[in-house]
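Annex B. Sample input.
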Amino acid sequence: MKSSGARQHGSENIKKKTKPFKKRKICVPECLKRPFGTLFLHSFADRVSRFIKQRQETSTKIKLIMNTENTSAPELESTVSRIIGSYREEAYLAIEEIMLHAFEEVGILLAGKTSMLSRKPINGISAQTLKEIASMVRDGQSFEETSRFKLRSYMHEFIKARSLTFEATRLKYPNYLKPWKEEDDQELERLWCEGVSVKDIATLFMRNPGAIKSRIEKLELAEKYGD
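Annex B, continued. Sample output.
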């Protein structure tokens, strides 16, 4: 009991000597103050609404040209150009919105931790861009305040990483993502029955092993002939 009292007395002394703890003010990003995904759903709804309106306008133009016998070649080309341009802009806006959500989450994760990053790009995004994003989130700066040029440069980096991956894969596997022909399926089935490995089949077809496995599953060759 005495020892218990001594411990209690000692703790009282510690409490007297210890300085009061000051709560540090933490800057909470705006994106964390709202329910997760609400902004994305809202922007998605707006995008769908714009797309439907644009689709109606495009349909009207197409019907007008189809019902006009004396449509000139320049007028036809101009209409095609406007259609492609408008849909391309919508595609860019959609990608931009998705990219901003990704960067917002990355910025939250990296805020205050950028010193831990190496100089190597992460999934195609440069270390400099990642540091800029983290700095914006840390300082409470909204991506809406960022210049259009800066956003487009971010998006170019965001998309380019994917295109570079595609080009590198196509160089390694020339038939990457190309459609399968009936004779290809027949050849694949024959090689599978002969016990040729997936790796060797991939080399013969100039496709990645994952594509060969997916095709084998689609044709249900394992069910037909066993593993």
